[in-house]
Amino acid sequence: MFRWLTGQHINHESSSTLKCFFMFMNSLKNLPIPKPLSEWCPVMTPELIQEKIETRKRNLKIDRKNTTKYQRKLTSAPDERPSSKYMGITGALVISLIAGFIVCIDLVNFSKRFKPARVKIE
């Protein structure tokens, strides 16, 4: 198995790509040992962590009223389709007819209630 990992079993008919791969793998043996994790990361105290959190919060905070989403929410888009115009006109007409019908019924009841009393003269 070690012969396979080092590429010693490769004969002359094998591809040069495989030879390059095995040469690369052999060169990895000579790499320096990486630093321990304690040398990569500084000592993090709770105060330092909290300070970094607060700094990131300040840097990432966005005023919601300056976003395009908020500004688009406040403006309405025009709709020039004929179907939307007809639906709006129909809705307004239905609402006004219902309100007019209710007002007419109230006027009839109002006129009956305050009708002057007729006195029969004989």
Explain the overall architecture.
Mean pLDDT is 79; it is low at 1-5. The protein has helices at residues 2-6, 16-27, 37-40, 46-60, 68-74, 82-113. Helices cover 61% and strands 0% of the residues. It is elongated. The protein is built from six helices and no strands. The protein is an all-alpha fold and 122 residues long. Keywords: Membrane, Transmembrane, Transmembrane helix. The chain crosses the membrane at residues 86-108.
Features:
122 residues; mainly alpha; 61% helix; disordered N terminus
Largest sheet: none
Work out the oligomeric state of the chains in this entry.
single chain
Distance between the termini: 136 Å
Counting DSSP E segments of at least 2 residues, the number of strands comes to 0
Transmembrane segments: 86-108
Keywords: Membrane, Transmembrane, Transmembrane helix
Question: What is the fold's blueprint, element by element?
Answer:
Layout: H1 2-6, H2 16-27, H3 37-40, H4 46-60, H5 68-74, H6 82-113
Short characterization:
Keywords: Membrane, Transmembrane, Transmembrane helix. This protein has 122 residues and is mainly α.
